[in-house]
Amino acid sequence: MDNKQYIHDKLLDLVKKDNVKVDEVLKNHLYTKLGGKADFFVTPTTFEEIQNVVTFSNEESIPFTLLGNGSNLIIKDGGIRGIVINLKRLDDISTDGNTIVAQSGARIIDASRHALKEHLSGLEFACGIPGTVGGALYMNAGAYGGEIKDVLDYAYVIDRHGKLVKRSASDLELDYRTSNIDKNKDIVIEATFSLKSGKFEDIKEVMDDLTYKRESKQPLEYPSCGSVFKRPPGYFAGKLIQDSHLQGTNIGGAEVSTKHAGFIINKDNATTTDYISLIEHVQKTVKEKFGVKLEREVRIIGDDLS
Question: Which of 52, 77, 192, 302 has the most CB atoms in a 10 Å sphere around its CB?
Fold first, then answer.
């Protein structure tokens, strides 16, 4: 039997039929609208299904990649080999006293809106972050002075061996736009945020103000991967790019935003190759002009086109 057919048949035994796809085009599932095909694209609906897929991939030595909505991720045009696990169907959000419990496939924006509805304060900063809860933990997402590490109590993960494990916030080594989740090969499946009671009107006022700032300054009308570069010590990445006169510069369909220099937008059916080439051009130009090395905040994974 063909190996691909064997893997497909086994996955159908582990996950509901409609939730396994072969040669799925990944750009259709990503915020950036970039990326080639996945050999196998799996969308589990239970924690047990995730465990089953991880265990199977380990037993058969098949690589697996976890994928959120790709708001801070670029996948190369050649796509991803093996199994891609997408947790978009695990999107439940609930309240337990002053805590919000959110599954990893839920959007962190929706978690902040749920907190508002429950008169809970602490997640206001996340009201404009487009990623999933799992992705937010992965990179310790933050904005406007707040970060995930400020409010995270603990998370449940499935480890590299397929075991369900509880991790405290301190276990995850959350730092500026980083954690140890990738190093440990953990899959975040649920997070619990510890918040404080507040007044609906006060929380909403903060969220409305942050939403206005975001919409007025960021190029939300185009697909993008958000802020491309980390903030260099003593500088602002966007200011360095702006002062390098790079806004409006394009390679293929990718362009440095004229609205916010820290964003590279998919303006006209860009390929990942366009996007990466423009990132490297920006890094090279800023380094030459100011002697500052811009470090990527966005992750790049996958294979080049053969």
Answer: 302
Identified catalytic residue from 24, 147, 177, 255? 177
Q: What is the C-alpha R_g of the chain?
A: 20
With a cut of 50, say whether residue 298 has pLDDT above it: yes
Q: What is the sign, positive or negative, of the torsion defined by CA atoms of 93, 96, 98, 104?
A: negative
Q: Which residues pair with 155 in a beta bridge?
A: 167, 191
Distance CA 78, CA 76 (A): 6
Residue 177 annotated to the active site: yes
Choose the catalytic residue: 112, 227, 244, 257.
227
Residues in contact with 79: Cβ distance below 8 Å, sequence separation at least 6, in sequence order: 26, 35, 36, 37, 38, 39, 302, 303
Q: How many CA atoms lie within 13 A of 90 on its CB side?
A: 27
Mean pLDDT of the chain, nearest integer:
94
Residue 170 annotated to the active site: no
DSSP 131: S
Query: What's the pLDDT band for 2 if we cut at 50, 70, 90?
Result: low
User: What domain count does the chain have?
Assistant: 3
Domain of residue 135 covers 93-202
CA 295-179-85 angle, to 5 degrees, is: 100
From the candidates 124, 147, 255, 297, which is the catalytic residue?
A: 297
Residue 17 has what pLDDT? 82
Task: State which of 36, 60, 86 marks the end of a domain.
Answer: 86
Of 86, 101, 130, the one marking the end of a domain is 86
Active site residue 224: no
| Whether 127 and 188 share a structural domain | yes
**For 274-293, what is the mean pLDDT?**
97
Same domain for 255 and 185, yes or no, is no
pLDDT digits (tens, 9 = 90+) for 25-73: 999 998 889 999 999 999 999 999 999 999 999 999 999 999 988 888 9
Q: Could you give the angle at the alpha carbon of 111 between the alpha carbons of 106 and 116, nearest 5°?
A: 155
pLDDT(1) > 60:
no
